[in-house]
Amino acid sequence: MFHATDELDEVDLALLSVLRANARATNRQLAIAAGIAESTSHARVQRLEERGVIAGYEAVVRQRELGAGLQAIIGVTLRPGARQASITGFSTKVRALPEVTQMFFLGSSEDFLVHVAVGDSSALRTFVVENLSGNPTVASTRTSIIIEYNRNTSTASFG
User: For the chain, how are helix, strand and coil distributed in percent, rounded to 5?
Assistant: First the structure.
């Protein structure tokens, strides 16, 4: 696992920059961008993966193309009492729902932010009522409709 004491040099940063912009970049493209041999590029990327700096690769899917053009962020506050069991159980259950694209556990007045993508406002209402408000561990929810969503390609560097 990567630790703050493990330094990333200019070559590592160049490789990461290319991969953030295009996770499908070829080894040749990576080598050219970093100014190193292809064999060195391959070994360096492999080492970044082994160190946990590169946690994985993902496809960015346009939810609208899947019929889920309405996105929302839902703030969820759990009921007090048996917090650890509630937090773990709620998180496990909600993360598994197909409408959930991202979920954040917070240290604020809300316990979670749940990012969902659904077909329309009726589907959003159904999701909130059946999966959140109807959950006995949930005290309250606050839903915010996302008007426009722009993904920052470097967000994968967090977490």
Answer: 40, 20, 40
